[in-house]
Amino acid sequence: MTAHDPLASGLDLRGKRVTLLGLGTRGGGLGVARYLAAKGAEVTVTDRRTAAELTEPLGELAGLPIRFVLGGHEERDFTPDGADLVVRNPGVPRRAPLLELARGHGIPVEMEMSLFFRACPAPIVGVTGTKGKTTVSMLIREMLRGTYPDVVVAGNMGISALDQLPRLRREVPVVIEVSSWQLESLIEHGLAPHVAVLTTIAEDHLNTYDGFADYAATKRGIARHQRRGDWLVVNRDDPEAWRAGEAAEATVVPFGDGVGGGDGAWRAENALVWRWRGAEHRWPLPSSPALAGGHGARNALAAIAAAMLAGASAESIGDGLRGFRGVKDRMERVAEIDGVVFINDTTATAPIAAVAALNALAGMTGRIHLLTGGADKGLDPGPLAEAVARHRVLAYLFDGTATPALAAALGSRGVGARGPFMSMADAVSTAREEAAPGDVILLSPGCASFGLFRDEFDRGEQFRLAVATRQADGATSEGLACFTRGEELE
């Protein structure tokens, strides 16, 4: 059975003892718990956090027949004495001792995404990559809406895929954003989307993988179990991503810069081009800042290819390009105060992502004031320091384990930096005092958020709050100019 088999019905969970390891706070764990209970499983939810730390998600599950083990774990729940199946939250490392204990006893380990792929009745468009996957996923949805008004997007953006199952129909594709951790379970269980999109592969999450080769292979794994009749949309300009097509059974569909003679999605001088089997369609380069620069154009090309293969019309593609205003927490224009624009790109958690933001804005604005730094993921800060120096960016550093190395990399290139700052409010206030009309204050940290912030979404929310406080303190505002936020959101 392929992952997009319309007869898919999922695992039979009635009466099965299922342990969910990690409830989480961003929707996925809640969706799994609700799904398991609805399917008649005997559910145990276990999390090292206490009930006081999980008040909100526990409230969402009140009244369901679920046993909770909080503030720690019980080994029995990962052995045949207590479990027939274990489901892990993406935040739990794949080789966590309790998971190894379960596997050692022959107990299968699933994740939300593998459960969803087994049960999904609709053809799945799966999107992954180091950068751009949320933007591409949301843009594909916009492009499909003209053809499929009820199209659903979910996955690694704070929207539980399992919660969406009742909304899905066999004839309407569903768009799923997939993280590297979620891919681990798809690879393990031989699952894959009907249309797979691989945007880019660059260094990220090296603190949780056995080096870059391991991480890159996991990203390419989105295509590993595709079959004939499936499609692999892949970045022709990214050698690591392009390797996914070397042994693919699916039909490989390239996208990238330069219009050659082949099929695929290509960027011409002033247009985006889709060429397929003798037919060609063109659309003007998008004007939205959310799709600015070379990276934005490649995101648009990836979305065009996936949407066309999923059944969108050329007219629907054009409508989607014109109407797209970006995604919350990703190059999100939050406000303009006294001529200074504030942009929230908090989900840029790797140096390469922050570099893409700087490249997109350079030349379009005055000086860029970059809020950067944070927690270490084992990544080289050199490329970010190079971009800061090249574009004459002013840097404001958050305190964190990655910040000393970033400060050293900046210093070796003759770039001074403000900070480190212990709060978002202080960083925003200092940047605002130094910014002039026409400048941009950009939150694009290039690092993980843990330490000062709960997660990257909390970091973005604190940025919005700090900007709102500046407005409330009496700054003359030209109005809040937020991009469309879409659904609650790598």
Description:
The protein has 3 domains: 17-107, Rossmann fold (3-Layer(aba) Sandwich); 114-323, UDP-N-acetylmuramoyl-L-alanine:D-glutamate ligase (3-Layer(aba) Sandwich); 332-472, Mur ligase, C-terminal domain (Protein-Tyrosine Phosphatase, Chain A). 31% of the residues lie in helices and 20% in strands. The chain has helices at residues 28-38, 55-60, 97-104, 112-119, 133-145, 180-188, 212-220, 239-242, 293-309, 314-323, 351-361, 382-390, 403-412, 424-434, 456-472, and strands spanning 17-21, 42-47, 66-70, 85-88, 109-111, 124-128, 152-155, 174-177, 195-198, 231-235, 251-257, 264-267, 271-276, 279-284, 332-337, 340-344, 368-372, 394-398, 417-421, 440-443. It has a 9-stranded mixed sheet with strand order 7-8-6-9-10-11-12-13-14. Strands 15-16-20-17-18-19 form a 6-stranded mixed sheet, sandwiched between helices. A 5-stranded parallel sheet has the order 3-2-1-4-5. Strand 10, helix 8 (239-242) and strand 11 (251-257) form a beta-alpha-beta unit. Helix 5 crosses helix 9 and helix 14 (424-434) crosses helix 15. The longest helix is centred in the middle third of the chain and has 17 residues, at 293-309. The radius of gyration is 23 Å and the shape is globular. The two termini are 29 Å apart.
